[in-house]
Amino acid sequence: MVPLIALTIMMTGCAVKLKSSESGLKLTKNEVVKIAESKARKEGVDLGKYDMTGCHYEYTKKNRTWAVFFDGKPPRLPGDHFEVLVDDQTRKATLMWGE
Fold first, then answer.
1. In this structure, are residues 67 and 83 in contact, taking their beta carbons and an 8 Å threshold?
2. Number of domain units in the chain
3. CA 59 to chain centre
4. How far is it, in rounded angstroms, from Cα 58 to Cα 87?
5. For the chain, first and last CA: distance in Å?
6. Residue 33 φ/ψ region, left for φ over 0, alpha for ψ in the -120 to 50 degree band, beta for the rest
7. Quick check: helix, strand or coil at residue 30?
8. 52 three-class SS
9. Are 99 and 79 in contact (CB under 8 A)?
10. Domain range spanning residue 22?
């Protein structure tokens, strides 16, 4: 049951809901996930120990950023998660560890 729930979250977690006024989106969700995974690997993260639990796009006038979330696989310890922020315009990725 838990794997089914995790799979459902992963499949729906990267949905992008944009209004027509939010045109100009450069990256697709698949591109963003690849960029995020690449950044995590470059930072030495073993992605086999994490599940991608979601990704979403934030649109504001100043900030067009994707956020991709990863949670540690059980047994989880406090802070065993991270996110990768990906700038839609520049493709720059920033990894941020959980606390």
1. yes
2. 1
3. 15
4. 10
5. 28
6. alpha
7. helix
8. strand
9. yes
10. 2-97
Give residue 22's pLDDT band: very low, low, confident or very high (50, 70, 90): low
State how far the Cα of 15 lies from the Cα of 56, in Å rounded to an integer.
Answer: 7
CB under 8 Å to 69, separation ≥6 — which residues? 13, 52, 53, 54, 55, 81, 82, 83
- 90: buried, middle or exposed (CB in 10 Å: 19+, 13-18, 0-12)? exposed
User: What tens digit of pLDDT does each residue of 23-79 get?
Assistant: 578 999 999 999 999 999 999 999 999 999 988 887 666 788 999 999 999 988 899
CATH of the domain at 49: 3.10.450
- Which of 29, 30, 69 lies closest to 52 in space, CA to CA? 69
Short-list 80, 57, 59, CA closest to 70: 80
Length of the chain: 99
